[in-house]
Amino acid sequence: MSENSEIIKILLIEDDPNIAGLIKYYLNSYRNYSFSVDWTETAEKGIEKLSIPNNYNLILLDYYLPEMNGLEALKIIKSRNINIPVIMLSSAKEKEVMSEVLKLGAIDYYMKEDIIGPLLPVIIANTIERENLKRQIEKDKGEQSQKIEAIQEIVITVSHEVNNPLAAIKLAANILLKKDLPPDIRTYIKIIKENTDRIEQTILKLRELKSEQIVPYVGRLKMFDLSTKPNTPKKEDRE
Hints:
Elements: E1 7-13, H1 17-28, E2 34-40, H2 43-50, E3 58-62, H3 70-79, E4 86-90, H4 95-103, E5 108-111, H5 112-115, H6 119-177, H7 183-207, E6 214-216, E7 222-224
Parallel strand pairs: 1-2, 1-3, 3-4, 4-5
Antiparallel strand pairs: 6-7
Helix pairs in contact: 2-3, 6-7
């Protein structure tokens, strides 16, 4: 009985029945996960299986296959945007092949003699856990990005309504500061002008929000950190 109820579905593309039998044996012997192995002897049949929904978690792909080798099969798999992790297996260690396989998007490349044994299910389980984590991180980033875009749309709408009154206040403040006014009145006008500048800067920051600015707040709540260095005031805005 496996400790994890999740069933890991493997598509095994391997032309040697003895190797396929060994792989099945070691996967079925693993206690932490249950494995379901769908075995096919040719790349063509494997690609055909991938053309219909099977919910495979991982593909074990032999490099040396009849008619179409593993590298050619991998190219087709990736060209069809099949986002299933692929581990390439080979009976020969060829650096050029290994490099090409990894460039094409395989998760890893192993010599059969090194991996077929008790280590195989551990490697597969770790690979799938790592890929699931990567997908979750990407999903979270995507959701976060959508939230930021929604906030930016709101900010743009609000800023459109706020910018004109702010500009009018700033213009009036600048005109008044050029007049001969009592010191206390000048102080109040400066306060008004400084705060309109702050509002403008805050709106600009909100319009350029980045996910990196999200920081912990209280408990599970998060907030945007807008404490960036303010822009230098323009010459005409200075007194």
